[in-house]
Structures are given as C-alpha cells and as structure tokens.
Design brief:
By secondary structure, this protein is mainly α. The protein has 22 helices and no strands. The longest helix has 54 residues, at 369-422. The protein starts with a helix and ends with a helix.
Length: 498
C-alpha cells in the first residue's frame, strides 16, 4: 500500500485545493453573480458532456487501464498503444455527433418548456464533450504510468481556477454570459494541450501507430471488453449526473438543478479520498490480477475499506454537524438552504460507498469484470427508475433519495458477490470500533453550545465543532490504533515537522 498511500495523499491535497476552488465557484462566485437559471446551465455544461463522453469514448479509458501492461515496452514505444488510445475514441465521437444532431428535435421537446436556456446552447455540449473525451484519455495514459498528480492539478486547479476568473469577469461586467460559456470551452481545450505537454515531458508521447495487434488474439479480448464497457462504463459515468439531466425537464427547471448542485457539491466532498485511492489502485490491482496475487488484492480490499471509512466519517461529521452554519455563510441562503437534506442523503451515499472499499476496482480488473459492468447497468436502471418516480414528487430531495437507495443496493449486491465468488470481505472488528466511535462523536456534538448572530459567530461555531470532532474522533482512531497505515502516516509527519 506504500505507493498507493503516497500518491493518494498528494492527489488528495490537490483535489481538496480543487474542492476549495470549486466550492468558492459554486457556493459564492457563481451563486452571487449568476441567476439560478444561469447556474443551472453551468451545471448542465459540466454534466451533460460527461454523460455523452461516457458513451462516445467507446470504453477506451477502461481498455487502457486493463490492457496497458500487455503492451508496455518503452523501447518499442508501447507497441503503438498510445495511437490506439487517440484514434479509437475519435471514431466514437463522430458516431455520437451524428446521433446527437439527429436527436435535436427530441432535445428541444424535452427541455424547451422548463429549461429553454439549455436549448439555446445546444451546440456547446458536443464541443465540450470532444475535449472532455481526450482529457479523460490522456489522464488514463498518465494513470497507467502511475502519474496522477499533475493531471489532477490540471483538472482540479487549472479548470476550476479558470472558472473562478470567468465568474469574476462576468460579475464585474467585463464579459457577457455568452463569452463566459466560450471561456469554459477554451479552458477544456487548454487542459488537453497541457496534458499532451506533460506526457511529452515524461517522455511517453509515442506517436507511433502499430495495428499489428489487430491480428493477435488479444485484440478480440480488447474488442469485447471495450464493447462491454461502452454500456457498463457509460452507465458508471452517467450515474453521478443522471439527476442533472432529469431535473431540468421537470417543474422548476434549471433553478431546481442549481439548488441540487449546490447541496451536491457540499455532500460529495466526503467522497474525494475514495476517488484518489481508486485512481492509483486501478493499475496496481490490474497487475496483481495478472500475477494472480490474491493476497495483495485482499489486503488492498480490507485496508481501503477501513481507511476510507475513517476518513469518510471524519468528513461526514465535519459537514453535517456544521451544515446550518455552512448554509448561513453562502449567498442567497434562503434559496439554497432548501437543499439541506440533499446534503444529508448525499453524505450518507458517499459514506456507504467508501465503507465498502474498492469493490468495483477489484471486480473490473478481474476475470469477473463482466459482472461488475453488469452491476453498474443494474444500478443505472435502479437510479433511473427511482429518479423518474421520486423527482416529480420530491424534486431535488427525490433525486438525492434515489442516489442513496441505488448505492446501498449496488454495494450490498457486490459485497455478497465478492464474498461468494472470491471469498474476500473487507470488514473486521476495527470497522465496528470506527463506526461506534463515529456515532459517539456525533451524539456528543449535539451537547455543544451554538452561537448565533454575526458572521464571526458562524465561523466560531464551525471551528469549535470541527476541532472537537478532530479531537474526539480523530484522536480516538489513533489511540485505538485501528489503522496501521494511518498511524504510520501520522508518525511520519511527526518526524518531519516535530
């Protein structure tokens, strides 16, 4: 777990800086300078292309992670694998574009009544989709070389800082809203350029094209895997954004999308460590499966579940115990505080997903990968059905409840499947200790005094509760020594700074 811990810590630091910038954008800058409809459109501009890209890239990022080790040879320029990664999704994008254009009348009929602003920017979505596809492909290529930090800087800091600048320029009337949208497009284009430069600096920009592998048996396996992941991988990509596609079509339109997105942004802060650990673990799990190192896989499964539960509970407690003060700090409190219970359900969604460990990463890199992709499709169907039922009734709260229901069913099914097929399970006595410690910490925070009034009182509330949670929960985890990895990290930091 050494390289996983080091890369994940670096990636988490970068990601949390990105979260801070993103929080500034969504909760303050965009919230202050954009109307709820404009903020809803901004949400769509960052969500719709992600869903489209999930289908258009033809599963190439997943193929890249799974099969790179079988092509890796620097002297042979990885046998033309980089060329394959570039050309395959281009074919997928052109196919997507033809379908997208043909469905324009349907797009207009779905969104014109409640979200006419979406229809006005119909042509922006495929442009961003194109750049997003290649951003994802280039990040994948960096990831298989165990380089995730610089791509994270480009994704989390550059793109979000650019959005901050655009929001300020718009807010102070230096640019129009149309120019703000064009600025977002330019930012995605530059992100792709920066990734290409980074790969060139690494000395891995191999432009050699070699399609001799098409005649080899491995091509059939890659082809079938790619086809399967078009469904499963696209469903996985669409899952976090499905609500944002459905909400604008219902009563309230882009305004309800904005409320949901603000609350979602707060709740999803909890899930960041999982994304970091999963990103660096993917190629290592693929290598372990190739070597049939089941002991290492089981170790990653158990340790990831425990460490993610600890970090997830710490973040969940910090956010939920301070949620009223957090909403009081953001502009337009009366509007966006309506999403309070969205934060709760999204927080529980993130926590449950983290507590069950890297189950998807283990399955999708194993010979049982088809089952994992099948589970994704089942989860997608559950989420789609519950959204279609709950959103018309409960709006954004219904969307959050649908997310929670789908993640619980999905992870319970995977837990049972992995236990039966592989005889792995991630829980132990330490899991129980951490859970009880989290409940004890939450209950005791209810006894803390609450200060009302000025801005400084709100900040004081947050600081007191956050410090208390860190001392009681964080200190308790270290004293009980439930995680060897976390204790080693803390000891290492003490040696450096004490």
């Amino acid at each position: 777990m050494g390289i996983i811990i080091r890369q994940s810590i670096k990636n988490s630091v970068v990601t949390y800086i990105g979260v801070a910038i993103g929080t500034l954008n969504v909760l303050f800058l965009y919230n202050k300078f954009l109307s709820t409809e404009q903020l809803g459109l901004y949400t769509a501009l960052t969500s719709f292309p992600l869903v489209f890209a999930g289908f258009a890239h033809l599963g190439t990022p997943h193929v890249g992670v799974r099969f790179f080790n079988q092509f890796a040879d620097s002297e042979q320029k990885h046998n033309g694998f980089f060329g394959y990664l570039i050309l395959a999704p281009f074919m997928g994008f052109m196919t997507f574009l033809l379908v997208y254009v043909s469905l324009k009348p349907s797009f207009e009929s779905v969104y014109s009544q409640n979200s006419p602003l979406l229809v006005n920017y119909f042509w922006v979505f495929p442009i961003i989709t194109f750049f997003l596809i290649y951003q994802t492909i280039l990040e994948t290529y960096s990831k298989v070389h165990l380089r995730i930090v610089v791509p994270a800087i480009i994704r989390e800091i550059f793109l979000k800082s650019t959005n901050s600048c655009l929001a300020l320029l718009f807010g102070f009337h230096y640019i129009t809203f149309n120019q703000l949208v064009l600025g977002i497009i330019l930012a995605y284009f530059l992100a792709v350029c920066f990734l290409l430069i980074y790969i060139k600096i690494l000395g891995k920009l191999y432009l050699r094209l070699d399609f001799s592998f098409i005649k080899k048996p491995i091509f059939k396996e890659m082809y079938l895997y790619g086809l399967w992941t078009i469904l499963g991988g696209a469903a996985a990509t669409a899952l976090p954004h499905l609500e944002k596609l459905i909400l604008p079509a219902n009563h309230g339109g882009l305004a309800t999308t904005a409320i949901f997105n603000v609350a979602l942004s707060i709740g999803l802060v909890i899930s960041i460590p999982r994304n970091a650990i999963a990103s660096i673990s993917d190629p290592l799990l693929a290598e372990s499966w190739r070597n049939n190192d089941l002991e290492h896989i089981a170790e990653i499964y158990t340790k990831s579940a425990l460490n993610l539960l600890i970090v997830g509970l710490l973040l969940f407690l910090g956010i939920w115990c301070n949620i009223d003060s957090i909403f009081q700090l953001i502009p337009n409190t009366a509007i966006y505080q309506q999403g309070k219970f969205v934060v709760l359900m999204v927080g529980l969604y993130s926590l449950f997903d983290m507590a069950t460990g890297l189950n998807s990463e283990i399955l999708k890199n194993s010979p049982l990968y088809k089952y994992d992709l099948g589970f994704y499709i089942i989860r997608f169907i559950i989420l789609l059905i519950t959204n279609l039922i709950l959103i018309p009734i409960y709006s954004y709260n219904g969307a959050a409840l649908a997310m929670l229901v789908s993640i619980i069913v999905y992870n319970l099914v995977k837990f049972v499947f992995i236990k039966q097929k592989l005889n792995f399970q991630p829980f132990n006595l330490s899991t129980v200790k951490v859970t009880l410690l989290g409940l004890l910490t939450y209950g005791s925070t209810l006894l803390l005094p609450v200060f009302t009034g000025s801005f400084m009182m709100l900040i004081l509330n947050i600081l007191i509760k956050s410090l208390y949670i860190c001392i009681i929960f964080g200190g308790g985890v270290l004293l009980l020594n439930v995680s060897e990895d976390l204790n080693k990290v803390v000891k290492g930091l003490k040696k450096k700074f004490v």
